[in-house]
Amino acid sequence: MRITEHPIISFPRRESVPFTFDGQPLEGMAGEPIVAALHAAGVRILSHSMRHKRPRGLFCAIGNCSACLMTVDGVPNVRVCVEPLRAGMDVRTQAGRGELTW
Amino acid sequence: MVKTEIAVVGAGPAGLMAAISAAKAGCRVLLLERSPYMGGQLIKQTHKFFGSKAEYAGERGSDIARILIDEVNATPGITVWDDATALGYYPDGVLTVRRRGEFRTVQPQRLVVATGAAEKSLVFPNNDLPGIYGAGAVQTLMNVYGVLPGKRLLVVGAGNIGVIVAYQLLQAGVEVAAIVEAGPQTGCYKVHADKVRRCGVPIFTSHTVKQATGGDCLESAVIWQLDGNWQPMPGTEKEFAVDGLCLAVGLTPLTELLWQAGCEMQYVPELGGNVPLRDEAMRTSRPEIFIAGDVAGVEEASAAMVAGKIAGLAAARDLGINSETLEAELAEAKEQLAALRSGPVSAKIRSGLAKVALREVG
Hints:
The structure holds 2 protein chains of 2 kinds.
Chain A: E1 16-21, E2 24-29, H1 34-40, E3 47-48, E4 55-56, E5 69-72, E6 75-79, E7 90-92
Parallel strand pairs in A: 1-7
Antiparallel strand pairs in A: 1-2, 3-4, 5-6, 5-7
Chain B: E1 2-9, H1 13-24, E2 29-32, H2 61-74, E3 78-81, E4 84-89, E5 95-99, E6 102-113, E7 117-119, E8 132-134, H3 135-144, E9 152-156, H4 160-171, E10 175-181, H5 190-198, E11 203-205, E12 207-213, E13 220-225, E14 238-241, E15 244-247, E16 251-253, H6 256-261, E17 265-268, E18 273-276, E19 289-291, H7 301-318, H8 324-340, H9 347-354
Parallel strand pairs in B: 1-2, 1-6, 2-3, 6-19, 8-15, 9-10, 9-15, 10-11
Antiparallel strand pairs in B: 4-5, 5-6, 7-16, 12-13, 13-14, 17-18
């Protein structure tokens, strides 16, 4: 959910861009962190813990805590709380630790 | 290899002030910031600051960030690297950096570390459910990106951060079920507590979280009362149907770079965790490394700005710049910092600082 009215902050409307979350088409604002677009679309579960597969959501939002690691355009362990959204991104929940492709 | 006189790691309130004061003293400064933007956590502080005119009292934190960023951009001698994460600092004086995906090396003559702090969590069953956020995350999400963290939240911690965030939630149109504080009194300025109470938000002191419940995401939270020995009292439980829980239970300094660089560290609970020893000029046990802001001990942004000024000036002086103006500014900043910490609220900070003081030799 996005804030539409606020007594002291005005949020500039940015260009709306398409991206996918686990293959499902969604829209977000260009340049906002991926997680802001996911949250605005109602997606709160970003990953699962390694051993017990417990759902993980946003915790720190500034790139410190690693609760939000996802696979973006094939690259694993992307901190979606700080990674800017671009048109056409393929965002996926990640299974396990992720594989390096090089 | 990039050579510079002073490298500053972190462009929050402390790092911005360190860069500005060192550059104005005549040094070439490289300012490193891991985010794509400067300002650190000031950019989400939409409330007006207290303190004195010298620390921009009366301005909103987000406006102070803009003022300082403009000054950085207008000050000759400062080079800014955004999207640049400092990785390590080595005995040969080389700072390694990942900048925009590339590995870079920097050789500064002096280093100012102003890396800030990270949010603490709280132990209770299901404290990892999505919907349970650090207070900073709630602020970032709603004040910077304009996205709501939930429809109805419970706030844990009635220090300044918890109570201010509760008010900001109300401003954004979110319902705040209650504020829960383990201590027998709120730890915030009274004016902040009064504001949320007037809006009808109850503050439960001597209470803590018993557990969170939910399937894949948070659905409710149960709190219970603590007795005089901080022990929970069965039978006093209250349950709140909430889709969000905001933990404002303190911060801990982000000291990885200082540990790695070999600075002498000490665990000081009053300052939020492990912090480096330092002298009055903010110099650590490694003579070329200075510190400022929350990495030196968790306080608030006004103190971070003044400490940043001290570190920047002291590092410049250390490079041989000596002028009466610099000495006067340094002395004034030290007095200003002492004045900020002089009140009863800062007793904890003062006792913490006494445990990590080095004698100034420079």
